[in-house]
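Continuing from yesterday's entry. The apo prediction looked reasonable, so today I'm repeating it with magnesium ion included to see how the binding region is handled. Same sequence as before; SMILES copied from the compound registry.
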Amino acid sequence: MTPILTQDSFDIITHSARQTLAVGRRLGRLLQIGDVVCLQGELGSGKTCLTQGIGAGMGIEEAVRSPTFVLVNEHEPVDGGVPLFHIDLYRISGAHEALAMGLDDYLYDDGVTVIEWAERAAEVLPEHCLWVHLTYLDDTKRSLHFCAQGERYRRILSALEQELSARRSLAPADEE
Ligand SMILES: Nc1ncnc2c1ncn2[C@@H]1O[C@H](COP(=O)(O)OP(=O)(O)OP(=O)(O)O)[C@@H](O)[C@H]1O
Ligand SMILES: [Mg+2]
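Holo prediction written out below.
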């Protein structure tokens, strides 16, 4: 996991699902009400895995599972923190259907929204958001390309890069 940061983007390769979870967990700790994370990547590239980490970082204790068949799962944190809206657009035909299912209601509600297959509704997503493009490299290896749209997300990426660079000081259980 050697992070490379340019001004707006950030690349990392994870070597296990646990590493992807750990990256998600650190990202989840940085997210606040109104933030939108758009995930793009083929089947099995790790979108749900990353989202599970994000949920853990936000303090969500219940299981975060792929919402493929229900389009959205709403997760409330146990201690009054920020809710996670986990959306999966795999089965929609296009942006209009995403709007018809109430996508905007989540994007502009008081929570963090994470969207799998976000590119299927790209034209109706907010101008400012965090894109993550995941690529399957081999059985255990995935590349994660983070791209910030807007100042808020540039700050998040900068903080994430610092945390991942300092990872050697973290407990082993958090690192794997
Ligand atoms: N480095 C890695 N990062 C993430 N997942 C990995 C990694 N190595 C192996 N895996 C495995 O790959 C699978 C990733 O599945 P996941 O459901 O997260 O993909 P997805 O992108 O959400 O797929 P879908 O498009 O079907 O929703 C999991 O079984 C996970 O254990
Ligand atoms: Mg998934």
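Comparison notes:
- The radius of gyration is 15 Å.
- The pocket of magnesium ion (ligand 2) is lined by residues 47-48, 66, 116 (CB under 6 Å).
Will overlay with the apo model tomorrow.
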